[in-house]
Task: structure prediction
Amino acid sequence: MLDGTAVVHDLQKLRDEGHLSDALLRTAVKQINKADPRYDWVGVYLFNADKDELWLHNYVGAPTEHAKIPVGTGVCGTAVAEKANQIVDDVTAIDNYLACDPDVRSEIVVLIRAGDEIFGQIDIDSSEEKAFTEEDEKELSAIADKLAEQIAAERR
Ligand code: SME
Result:
C-alpha cells in the first residue's frame, strides 16, 4: 500500500535541497510505481492552459500514444473538465476512455491543484478490476498537494 506521507517527506527533502518540480515529478512517479504491485502504469500529465490540453511529463510502464490529451477527452481530460479526481472501476464499461494498453482494467486520476487552479494530474492504470479505493486517492492527494506547492512556487 502506498504511504503518501513517506513520499511527501522525500519530496520536501528535494525541495529543501533546491530541486525544481521536474525532479519532484519524476521522483513521485517512480516512488508511487514501486509502492504497490497494482500500479502497473504511473504517469504525470501537466495541464497546458493555452492549448487546453494535458501534456505527458513522465511515466513508468508500457509506452503510450497519449502524449497529449485534450481537456474533456478520456478519464484524464474529464478530471480537468470536471475539476474532480476520477476512479474508474472498469474502464471497459465507459465510453469516454482512451486505451493505452489492452490489459488495463481500472484507472485513477488525482489532480495536482491549488484550489480551483489545475496544474496537472497523477494518472495510474491497473490490470486489476476495481484496483483503486478512496484510500489510494487520499495517499495520492497528499503527494499531489506537495507537487502543487512546488509548481505554484515556481510560477510566482
Ligand atoms: N486512459 C487515459 C489515457 C491515458 S493512459 O491511461 C496512459 C484516459 O482515458 O484518459
About this structure: The chain has a mean pLDDT of 97. The longest helix spans residues 134-155. The pocket of methionine sulfoxide is lined by residues 41, 43, 64, 66, 69, 74-77, 97-98, 100, 107, 123, 125 (CB under 6 Å).
